[in-house]
Each structure stands twice: as structure tokens, then as C-alpha cells.
Amino acid sequence: MDSEWKRVAVPLLCAAVVSVFLLKWRKQQKVKRKLQRAREKREKEFEQAEKAVGCFKTQNAGVDLSSIVTLPLAELRQQIRGGSLQPDVVLHAYMEKALEVNRELNCSTAVLMESLKQLEDIESHKDGFLYGIPISIKDNVKYEGYDSTCGVLSKLENPAIEDSVVVSVLKKQGAIPFIKTNIPQCLLNYECSNPIYGRTVNPCNLEKTSGGSSGGEGALIAGGGSILGLGTDIGGSIRIPAAFCGICGLKPTNNRISTHGLDSCVKGGKTVLAAVGPMARDVESLALCMRALLCTDMFTLDPTVPPIPFNQQVYESSEPLRIGYYENDGYFQPSPSMSRALRETKELLEKAGHTLIPFTPPRMFTAFHEYVLRGNLADAGSTLMQHFKEGPVDPCLKFQVALCELPLFVKRMISLLLRPIYPRMAAAIHACCGVSNAAELWKQHREVEDYIHETLAEWKKLELDVLLCPMLGPAFNFSYTGKQISAVTYTAVYNVFNFPAGVVPVTEVTAEDEDQLKNYRGNFGDIWDKTFVTAIRGGVGLPIAVQCVALPWQEEMCLRLMREVEKLCAKNKQTNMHH
Fold first, then answer.
1. Which of 197-207 are b and which e, b meaning 16 or more Cβ less than 10 Å from the residue's Cβ?
2. Catalytic one of 226, 237, 415, 486
């Protein structure tokens, strides 16, 4: 009987093992083919774009394209409107530059060849606010006929059937979206890398990350390959890459600009709110973009957006401001360069006649764990994990994915064991367990509302107009962002508050800042604090920004402070150069 059983069982077992291997092998082959098709498609678009630029240059032999990409947006806009520059010349100039920048930084996921077709009809948009201006858009902003991959295989070969509202509005305003830019896998990381298109690097230092999740935008604009771009932000995704690459970026109040037609891997969260906003080389460009987008077309295409046009008067006002500020949020100690940037900016603002008042963001420990982390991972990360089933996990996300994949009881156990030695890490791991039922989710929503009003009460008591706070920097070395979630407190809390927040570059890392890293202890002295020092080492010469914040729906006030900071820093730089 025993040998009979063996005779049947052994071949069956072998067949089962072989079929498991075959299934695995087939899946791997399928993934490989899918990745190959995506990469070949991108290469083909690059070749088509190169060809189009080549043809244009042959037909217009005397035209100098290189000088066009050096013009500031306000001036470029003026020249196109005045007729001294034609939209087709400008588009080809930027297409050529973007391809050149992409070869070095790997910051694009698609060239929108439709943009050349858009030129045929561009004259009918001559009255548009951004007539003839080429614009880059982040990968997850839907554009008809193109994928919004979010860096995951599950979203490949699924082209958008229509433009997102922002793209429609930009086109109506005469702007020409011409390129899509790279993102991290699943968008939930601030290093820009995914298994489909690879890693985007920082134009200021190729050994550093460009930031994320709008990392391709940050790199392309800073590299000179785009003059204006659109990013999205759910925890700092516009502000971090802008700061890392040395450009300006604005995260508006959620739904000040329509988010209809933006893709993501986790939709439906209401605790931490996403927003779409502009990225550019200067503050004036951000304001121009906001003016263009906040128009009747947007309010008609998406009636859920409050019809508040851009208030130019508030933006241009020169009345002295009451500015709240803080240097350390009590959760994450800023790097030496972050602290210095904040202090120097504060002094410049005081000298210019503004009043600066110390402000402490309340209960940051609770806010970060209970609202930012638990809010983003309310389902313990299960929706997010669905997108990793089909293909490989990017190396910079391995730590985050491993944490999400742990069974709940294991996470709770680790959290319990860590609590006496590493309270901050213990609280973060516990927050990754999410909420256990609807009642708990509603409780979280209620607590967030109370938290917002508690902060507003403090803001009103101090009679603040705006807030100045540190901005994460300098740009990290590769593969550290996934191990460093604690560093996003300065940005992510404003997605919970739903306050508009923007960044302006103000200085660069000095040798002295770098040297001071040896004294950095952090607020908790835990593994995260030690890792942070290693993550930012070797940053001399990299840009450092500050963050400006205003109350909900007051983007103009936020931009006004940003413009003031930009102006004072430029003036200060000039004075120092003369000395």
C-alpha cells in the first residue's frame, strides 16, 4: 500500500512543484514583457520628438532656440503675446531642452506628441492667459491617450479616455502641455524612482535624489527643460522636490484647483488631503499659473471647486505682515542648514518692517502619528499593497512595503517592545495598523476637525497673517527616504490642516552647516535621527528653502509672503556680492 501511494504521490508532487515554478516563470515573463513595452513606447516618443525638433530646425535655420529657454515666464509670455516669438518656436525650444535634460536626469515618462497637433489650433486661444506657453505635467495628471502609471505596473496600458480638468483649463488658456514627468512607485515616497522608468536624479548634484513624489517635475524645471509644471501633494510631494531642486512650488488648499482627473493608488482618504499646484523657477510664475487656472472654465468644468478667482490685490499688497514662525516643531529637529535658512529669513523680514511672532504648532507627536500616518494608512495599507502584486517593488520602497506587509499582531507587538526605548518609532509603527472600524475612522475625522480649530484659535489669538517655517533639506542621498518618514512633519501637517503652503529657495548648504552635522542629536536621539545625518551628508552647495503657510483659500497671501522672501533674499545676495 505504502509503495503504491508513493508511486502516485511522487509524480503528483513533482507535477505540482513544476506547475508552481511554471506559473511563477510565466508571471515573471509577463511582467518583463509589460515593462519592455512601456520602455520601448517611451523611447519611441523620445525619438519622434527628436525628429520633430530636427525637422523644425532644418526648416527654420536662422532661429536661435537656446536663448528662448533662458527667459523668465513673465517675459516669455509678453514676447509671445507681442508677436516677437511664435508658439511653435517656443514649443520646439522647450522640447529640445527637455530631451537634453532628460538624457542626464531621467525625469520624463512620456513626450506628449499631441502638443504638436495643438499648435495647429493655437491661434484660436490667442486671448488665453498662457497662450503659447509649454507646460510639463506630473505622470498622474490625466492626459487623453496617455497612461497615468503612478509608477506601478497595474496602471500600465490603460490610457486616459479624457483630459483631467486642469489639463482642459490649461489648453483653453492657450498653454501647451508637452511632457509628462517621473514619479516614485505608488506616489507615496519622496525619492523619485519606480521599476518602470527608473530613478530621477537631482540637477544640482547627480548623486542626490530629486525628491518626490513630483520629483520629475522638480528635476525638469530646475534643469531648464520646462518653465512651468503641475505637481500634486499629499504630504509634501510638491514642496519637497521643489526644495531639493532649488525651485518654487505651491500646494494650494485642497480643491482650490480641481483634482478631478488626477490618478493615485489610494483614493478616498479624507484625513490627509491632496492638492494639485504649480512648480516654477520663481514666485511670479506660480502666481501667473494660479491666475490662469482660477477662471470661469474651471468653475464650469468642475462645479465642486469654489468659484474664487485669483485676488491680485492681496498678492501685490505691500502692507507689513504679522508673521508667525517656528524653528523646531518638537518632533523632528531641522538640519543645521534648515535652521540657519529660517533664522536668516526671519531677520530679513524683520529688517523689512514685518512683525515676527513665535508660534508653536500644537501636539505634533499626536498629529503626525494619529492623523498623517494613520490617516494615510487607515486600511493598514491594504489598498496600497494591491498595486505591488503584479510587479517588482522599487528598492527605495522595500522598507515601507515590508512594514505594510507585516501582520497586524506583529506590528502591534513590535510597537509594544519598542515603546520604552524608541517611543517615536513605536508610535509610528502602531499608526501603520490603521483604524479597526468605521466608528474609529469617524472618531479620527472628528479629532482632526478639533485639531484644526485648536490651531486656528492659536493663530487668531496671535493675530497672524501668515506663517514661516522650516523646509526639509538638503536633498537626500539615494535610498534613505523610505527609512525616514519622520522627516516629513514640516510638510505633511499642512495637508491635515488643509492650509496652502509654498516653498522658496533662500540659501545653499555651507561647509560650516555640513561640519555642524557632527553635533546633530535630533529631538529623540533614536535611529531615525541618526539615519537623517547619513541621509543628508555631502550636501555642500545644495539649495535650502523655507516654507510659507497661509489660512485655507488664501493662496494669494501665501504667495505674497513667498514673493517677499524671494525679493529680500535676492537683494541680500546682491548686497553681499558687492561687499
1. bebbbbbbbee
2. 237
End-to-end CA distance of the chain: 99
237 is catalytic: yes
Give bridge partners of residue 504 from the DSSP assignment. Answer: 546
pTM higher than 0.70: yes
Catalytic (active site) residue 483: no
Bridge partner residues of 111 (DSSP)? 179
- Please choose, from the candidates 524, 210, 246, the residue with its C-alpha nearest in 3D space to the C-alpha of residue 368: 524
Indicate the DSSP class of residue 132. Answer: T
Q: In terms of Cα–Cα distance, which of 467, 484, 501, 575 is closest to 535?
A: 484
* Catalytic residue, candidates 97, 138, 251, 411: 138
Is the predicted pLDDT of residue 7 greater than 90, yes or no? no
pLDDT, one tens digit per residue, over 162-190 is: 999 999 999 999 999 999 999 999 998 99
Tell me, what amino acid is at 556? E
Looking at 108, 213, 264, 337, which residue is catalytic?
A: 213
For 235-285, the three-class secondary structure string (H helix, E strand, C coil) is: CCCCHHHHHHHCCEEEECCECCECCCCECCCCCCCCCCCCEEEEEECCHHH
Task: Answer yes or no: are the C-beta atoms of 213 and 278 closer than 8 Å.
Answer: no
- Phi/psi class of residue 431: alpha, beta or left (left: φ > 0; alpha: ψ in -120 to 50)? alpha
b/e sequence 112-131, b meaning 16+ C-beta within 10 Å: bbebbebeeebeebeebbbb
